[in-house]
Amino acid sequence: MSTEPDGGIQLEYGVDDKPPLPKSILLGLQHVAVMIVPATAVAYVVAGGVGLDLTDTAYIVQMVLLFSGLATIVQAYTVGPVGARLPIVMGSSFTFVGASISIGADFGMAAVFGAILVTGFVVEGLIGWQFKRIRPFFPPLVTGLVVVIIGLYLVPVAMDYAAGGANADDFGALHHIGLAALVLATAVGLNMFTRGVTRLLSILVAIGVGYAAALAAGLVDFSAIGDAAWIALPSPTRFGFEFEPIAIVTFAFLFLVSAMETVGDMSGVTAAEGRNPTNEEFRGGLFTDGLLSSIGAVFAAFPITSFSQNVGIVNFTGVMSRHVVGIGGVFLALLGLSPKVGAAVTTIPSAVFGGAVLLMAGMVAASGFRLVVTNAALDRRNTVIVAVSLGLGLGIATTPDALAGLPAAAETFFGQPVIVTALSALLLNTFVPGEQSPLFDTHPADSESAGDSAIVDPSDD
């Protein structure tokens, strides 16, 4: 049943609703279709940068899919304190690509997976465990800005895909732009001008239309399918483990980024209900990030974190059901056990995927803006915080070479748009007096933030 909560959007299905099974399967496949290419692309990019052979590359791709699925299922249904019971789709993040390549090339993949094993649950587990204490430092103004920057810095990635892929010989060719435009126009048209199942599955239908057009134009390469095995089981400690201090420190920083992204993504999802996540939801979501990343490292999977594109799907379709996302997680896990099926999915041309992600990136940013505007008055104080945080984050995203003079560790840390935006917003919001500052008990009558509305945590008395 459609609902429209205060400050949220019209929901076709709430978080605990169960759409009919056929519809749930299609909606789950829609989530898989949007995230599977970038999730597996992380493995391909790192493997290529380190120089792994095709067999090892295919195995890492398989493990990324398997643990993305397992983590997604845990987020939807929980295992003890692990999991948020929210529609959070998990996958391998581009946040870790640069560090994985440089550390893998210098120290070997054993050092990469050793660092992930140590830092995954230690960093995010500690943040999740103590999140109730630190939560006052992350009001909607801060988390909303994190959601905004996540969406905005995905836009250039989406445009690269829409143009055929950053390393394509025919980058920007008319047929790539045409495919991306077809997917984008189809998704927007179905969402805005149709109702029912067609609207809910608008992104999946758009990807299907783009794929069919690519097939007709002879732009789909099926060679990877013939080379892939039907079934392959996980192989623990395939690459071994080494514990290099530099690698551990670097990945500790990056897992801090991952935690901030997850906090932002969770806030983006619950913004559809007009609220911020509860302490239990934050804690369970962060536990999933860290624990599944550490376990995945044993089997040679890269770190698993929340996927922002799928936050956009929730807000775009109004389907917030965690059961739909759980079904998507099952599909991902099954794909992780069948490299041949996974190879078939990855035949989707980059441009087709780019058209869908371009829309999703914009929706993620829009959900972040809604979170900020709904819960924080844009007075002088808050407007300055927004301006500084987004200005610095976008500056780093568009001109990363500006930090080339910093020490390597500092460049890695401050070269992340999410962490720059989050730290800027966190520091300014904390130390500038205002209603959302955890250090100042400012009375509304004495503050320009009088219009700010605090989010009520259902778990608090």
UniProtKB/TrEMBL annotation:
Cross-referenced InterPro entries, in alphabetical order?
A: NCS2, UacT-like, Xan_ur_permease
Q: What is its main location?
A: membrane
Give the way it sits in the membrane: Multi-pass membrane protein
Keywords recorded for this protein, A-Z: Cell membrane, Membrane, Transmembrane, Transmembrane helix, Transport
From the UniProt annotation, give the residues forming the signal peptide: none
Organism name: Natrinema pallidum
Q: Where in the cell is it found?
A: Cell membrane
Name used for this protein in its record = Purine permease
Write out the transmembrane intervals.
Answer: 25-47, 59-79, 111-129, 141-159, 171-193, 200-225, 245-264, 285-307, 319-338, 350-372, 384-406, 413-432
Q: What GO MF terms are annotated?
A: xanthine transmembrane transporter activity
Where in this protein does the record put region Disordered? 439-461
Which Gene Ontology terms of cellular component type are present? Answer: plasma membrane
UniProt superkingdom: Archaea
Family designation:
Belongs to the nucleobase:cation symporter-2 (NCS2) (TC 2.A.40) family.
- One Pfam family, please name it: Xan_ur_permease
